Amino acid sequence: MTDPTKDPRFLRDPYPTYAALRSTCPVRPLPAGSGARPGYLVTGYAEAREALADPRLSKDTARFFAGGESRRRPHPAVAHTMLASDPPRHTRLRRLVARAFTTGSVERLRPFITRTTDRLLDQWPTEGPVDFVAALAAPLPVAVICELLGVPQADRPDVQRWSARLFAAGDPADVDTASHAVADYTAGLVADRRQDPGDSLLDRLITACDADDHVSEEDVVSLAVLLLVAGHETTTNALGNALLALLTTPAELDRLRADPHEIPAALDELLRYDSAVSTATFRFTTEPVTLGGADLPAGAPVLVALGAANRDPARFPAPDRLDLDRTATAHLAFGHGIHRCVGAPLAKAELEIALRAVLARFPAISLAVPADRLEWRRTRLVRGLESLPVTV
To answer: What is the pTM of this model?
Structure first.
């Protein structure tokens, strides 16, 4: 299977390819690259859910690559985040950040999200097309997570640029360079907060980490990097994908426009329909595993295609149709199991507030270009638009 990110047709609509792969084999071997170990691709919903919750599928990338030769030189704080660890380390680190994303914590953020959304929409032109990604979907989540972590306003464009490079499917050396830039910046931010503490999430995180003898300074920086990067990149894509889904499904758009109170209930179906995270982060088998009728040997990389699983007709009938009456709460857009996205409540709050505000202010919003002319980001992990020109 060739690299799909090099095919514009796959980037525009990967779901026919996923359907073909899933129909022949929901867990299929992937050809190994030069010197690499053969891996497996999971496209079925039941198999994906099982894989995401199986403790025999490790996320400890340091363990997997130990002793191997690699030209990659990512910063350790980026390479060894909470996402790339197993219990007990994962359990300990997740506990430190989970309280920031409880329902109550997110509720307290809603006024800031609303004010930021309104401020950004105030800047939209009254005539001509506007890029929804550049004008709202990208800056809103950046502003929210940077506000949470106490990142100065002047530094936020750099954070956004480094994050985009980390998720790109380009030159690995560029990705590694971005990892050092964002980690070095974050380490400096942590040091500054220790010298001049405040009341941000980062301040509380530093205090909690310092009280735990098992948490190192690298862990503190790593957690902050993860929150800073993962805390907005996926939400940007989710916003763009959701609005595009509505703009290309006029009946459902009209429904939410007529009754904005339905927006919270519609979010799970929008997230299922076009998942912002296309493929779950790296896993590998620590022992032989049977999954979906396939026998996976120990030490095999496993890629779980969340976007494919969310379009599995065995779980979601007529999966290629956006249906806001569908009960889609079991979607895998946020993952599943102990690694399920800790920031899911915040992401959903941002989606709800942003979509409600856009539809209220711009009831005649429409695509400014045909959907098949939109450009998608060339990345393996996340699925999102380079831009989304709309007419308001």
So the answer is: 0.92
